[in-house]
Amino acid sequence: MNPAGIACIRACFENAEEIFPVGDPRTREGDGRSTPWRRLPQMPQLPQQQQPAPKTLTDWEDAFEERAAIMEYDGGLPRPLAEFLAGRWCARRGAKSK
Fold first, then answer.
1. How many CA atoms lie within 13 A of 59 on its CB side?
2. What does the domain layout of the chain look like in residue ranges?
3. What is the pTM of this model?
4. For the chain, which terminal residue's Cβ has fewer other Cβ atoms within 10 angstroms, N or C?
């Protein structure tokens, strides 16, 4: 950044005043400089939306996903074909237990 830009940024902060939340001990209440519009409003904490827990795979689903991924990435097969063959492989191996 060039010196003119640095000087411009410093000029922006020359008249800056610290603003503290209501009730903060650093709030200057006795010197007459603290006015209501300079205080930050107190906002309640809003509840955050909870995401559902990740689904746990069964043994059959885990074997199916792993076999399909191996066929797709290592074997170079398209995903639908890899999933079809993985399903047949798992069914033949008996991994499909309920």
1. 7
2. 3-29, 59-93
3. 0.42
4. C
Query: Rounded to an integer, what distance in angstroms lies between the CA atom of residue 74 and that of residue 3?
Result: 56
Span 68-92, pLDDT tens digits: 999 999 999 999 999 999 999 988 8
Whole-number Å distance between alpha carbons of 86 and 69: 9
Q: At what angle do helices 79-93 and 59-69 cross, to 10 degrees?
A: 130
In angstroms, the CA 56 to CA 81 distance is: 24
- Assigned token pair, 97: 């237990």
The DSSP output letter for 31 is S
Continuous H helices in the chain: 3-13, 59-69, 79-93
